[in-house]
Amino acid sequence: MSGTVGAVSSNGVYSFTKPNRESIRLLTGLGVEGDVHAGETVKHRSRVRQDPTQPNLRQVHLIHGELFDEVRMAGFEVAAGQLGENVTTRGIDLLGLSRGTRLHLGDEAVVEVTGLRNPCAQIDGFAKGLLKQVIERGEDGRPRFKAGIMGIVVTGGVVRPGDPVGIELPAGPHVPLGRV
Description:
Protein name: MOSC domain-containing protein
Order of helices and strands: EEEEHEHEEEHHEEEEE
Organism: Streptomyces macrolidinus
Number of domains: 1
Distance between the termini: 24 Å
């Protein structure tokens, strides 16, 4: 299983959306160089309020570009970076990956998957009704979050649109992704 990078995005200030870039540099143990969410400890405001010393398991946010196709069919126009992600992929079932999966982005960078993005009300601030599109109910009635995955940088490097994305599954049984 492999895919490609469709877009890369970053923002040095707190904002829901992130502008697309020609490239981003991932920094080992920190995240995206110059991005407001980079750091060893949590940077997301809600997490900082809870405990600013928590490790940052949300250094890199990835979304599958197929989500944009899906919400477009429901009447929403969403482009890469507009949901705050750093890396938009194509051709990978990100939500179906196991915790601990390593994504090889481009020639050098490696991101280890830590869990699911917890969709928040800011998504409806971007487009009213969109939050319902990125949270669906499973057959068991439990919510299924579709707003992407989070990870930590285990090997830094430059990532560009068009780069390949390789998938290295962890040893052992599949561990479904939970919210981080």
